[in-house]
Design brief:
The complex is a heterodimer of chains A (about 170) and B (about 450). With about 170 residues, chain A is α+β, with helices and mostly antiparallel strands. Helices cover about 20% and strands about 40% of the residues of chain A. Chain A has a single domain (about 10-150), classed as Nuclear Transport Factor 2, Chain: A. The chains are: A alpha+beta (about 170), B alpha+beta (about 450). The interface of A and B includes residues 75, 84, 158 and 161 of A.
């Protein structure tokens, strides 16, 4: 019997700080296991008119991973032949203003402000915006069913590429 | 650098030694960059936008090209035109929106009003101007020369350049036709959403990279491994095996005026129309129908060319169309000798099924764009090349692979993992920079 009790803000915070720590430590093979089998990780385009409701099957996103590509992304980024992240950049994920935005049988929805600093070589760039999460309980654990990144950017001209995970 | 770029032959060909090389000031020098703007970007046809982006009267898109702010406009009368987005009064932009639909443009500074043809309709003043002040039209927003082929609109800053149709030439028009033939109605659209990003490298490094069969295995091994993992257990699982035969199918072709096409076989599946088992049987029906339609229309050979061969296309000097695992239109805008801005869109047949559109978009982001499994590794190579060559004593870049023994390297064909096509681009580039080719009729 699935535990469908709402996830509290405090629980969500602990969980997100754990995710951030795994990302900053490049523990991506552990990070990918935070995601359910039916999960998606998406970042909408910087020119998207309706970032909350946009659909990656009809609009071009920056990325739109189902679980197979979430796993693939983690595996790829841990290889030394993933040139764009070799050597791994230094990152710092700041998740703040964490709000529980609702709860239903699909899980608990969160809105989270984020700021991620990335240093690759001598260049430091910043990704900022809002993350929309759908979290669920799986046994005793909390997992991510959906994570959508909405960047407060109009292009990636400052950052260049987005090879790290938000 | 110590060498005046204009005094130097920047591209050197030695057929005896089978050597084709490029002086690296072509990537680094501010003087070369200024000459490129004047000799190349002010004479060549430059991609502005796609017909489908402004489907209705009044629709517009604002776009910046080589530092010029332009409006790509579908007029109220039904024409498609382009004009400058700068008020003829005191210079402010008359439109601050990225895209939309309007009856008129009102300058925010002093309230001058222009219609969708760029004509001045009001100066927002009761008095102070003679009534006939704009009888000669000098206060209308100046238009830019605009021509289209197959729904692709290009501007030209010169009145002297040959028409777009001739500029593209037979082969390139045929490639564009092959892309548009993916649609039964011939109507292709740009899907919503763009990729806009930058690379700290000379724009020509991305032009080379966008159709480089030679770099696939070293740079994109992790992507091919991802595909192999994903296809495991299907009949398409032997990705490495297919890649071993890469050099045997297709070719790298310089097709005139500096344009080129890499035609090759990469086992990603193509929404039009090369099915792979991991997509499932539903899409197979749609793909089989497309193949049957094209075979009936053109015969088997052309059908297979349209459906199966991946086409990495460069329209000189800065447009890339990659008709590969999805179809992308990518413009490359140099912003300095060592920096560029890239904008990319997804092109799709208007009538394809929702499931096919979903596969197309999924394919696109799986490999392409600033967060894909492919493009960022390319970007890293270009960043690295730009940075490292600047401190290197090696003066020349070696681009000799598969140099063909022909009089004009701008029309030549070599194997898909060669550099023959790029030699055609660089030959055109060199001739235009020196003024030996002006593209005037």
């Amino acid at each position: 019997m699935a535990n469908t009790n709402p996830i509290s803000r405090a629980e969500a915070e602990d969980f997100l700080y754990h995710e951030a720590e795994l990302l900053d430590n490049w523990a991506l093979l552990e990070w990918k296991d935070l995601y359910t089998e039916d999960s998606v990780y998406e970042v909408v385009s910087t020119d998207c008119d309706d970032p909350e409701n946009a659909d990656p099957t009809t609009s071009l996103f920056l990325l739109a991973d189902k679980k197979d590509r979430i796993d693939g992304r983690a595996v790829r980024l841990m290889k030394s032949a993933a040139h764009a992240e070799y050597p791994h950049s230094k990152t710092r994920h700041l998740y703040t203003n964490i709000r529980v935005a609702g709860h239903d049988r699909n899980g608990t929805r969160l809105k989270v402000n984020f700021l991620v600093h990335r240093t690759g070589g001598d260049i430091t760039t910043h990704f900022m915006g809002e993350l929309h999460y759908l979290l669920v309980r799986v046994g005793d654990a909390i997992k991510i069913r959906k994570k959508r990144g909405i960047l407060d950017l109009n292009s990636l001209n400052d950052a260049g590429q987005m090879t790290i995970i938000l | 650098m110590g060498v005046s770029a204009s005094a130097l032959q920047l591209v050197q060909v030695d057929q005896q030694r089978k050597s084709f090389r490029i002086h690296r000031s072509a990537f680094k020098s501010g003087e070369v960059f200024e000459r490129e703007k004047e000799q190349i970007f002010s004479r060549c046809w430059l991609y502005l936008g796609h017909r489908s982006e402004i489907p209705n009267r009044g629709d517009f898109v604002c776009r910046s090209l080589m530092g010029r702010n332009l409006i790509f406009q579908h007029t109220r009368k039904g024409e498609v035109i382009a004009f400058y987005n700068a008020c003829t009064h005191r210079g402010a932009a008359v439109c601050w929106d990225k895209r939309g639909s309007k009856k008129t443009f009102t300058c925010r500074y002093h309230g001058w009003v222009f219609d969708t043809e760029g004509k001045l309709k009001s100066m927002n003043a009761e008095s102070g101007y003679p009534e006939d002040i704009n009888d000669d039209g000098h206060l209308n927003l100046p238009r830019v020369r605009l021509e289209q082929y197959g729904g692709l609109y290009f501007i030209n800053f010169s009145d002297q350049t040959i028409p777009l149709y001739d500029y593209l030439g037979d082969y390139m028009r045929g490639v564009i036709d092959a892309i548009n033939d993916q649609s039964a109605s011939g109507e292709m659209i740009i899907t919503p959403g763009e990729h806009a990003y930058s690379i700290n490298a000379n724009y020509k490094l991305l032009i080379e990279n966008s159709a480089d069969g030679y770099h696939l295995m070293p740079v994109h091994r992790t992507y091919l491994e991802f595909l192999a993992d994903r296809f495991a257990g299907s009949k398409d699982a032997d990705v490495a095996g297919t890649m071993k035969g890469f050099s045997a199918i297709g070719g790298a072709k310089a097709v005139g005026n500096g344009h080129y096409v890499l035609e090759s076989n990469v086992p990603t599946g193509r929404p039009v129309a090369s099915w792979i088992e991991p997509w499932g049987s539903v899409l197979k029906e749609e793909i089989d129908a497309t193949r049957a339609r094209l075979e009936q229309k053109y015969g088997k050979e052309r059908m297979e060319y349209i459906c199966e061969l991946q086409k990495n296309i460069v329209v000189f000097p800065n447009l890339v169309i990659n008709d590969i695992l999805a179809t992308t239109i990518r413009t490359v805008e140099p912003t300095s000798p060592g920096t560029m801005q890239v904008t990319a869109w997804c092109l799709a047949p208007v009538e394809e099924s929702a499931a096919m559109r979903a596969i197309r978009l999924d394919n696109f982001v799986s490999f392409l764009g600033p967060a894909g499994f492919g493009s960022p590794d390319d970007g890293s190579m270009l960043n690295s090349a730009q940075k490292s060559m600047s401190g290197s004593p090696t003066e020349w870049t070696e681009l000799s692979k598969d140099l063909q023994d022909v009089d004009d390297l701008r029309v030549a064909a070599g194997p898909p993992d060669g550099e023959t096509h790029m030699q055609g681009y660089w030959t055109q580039w060199d001739m235009m920079l020196r003024g030996a080719e002006t593209l005037e009729g």
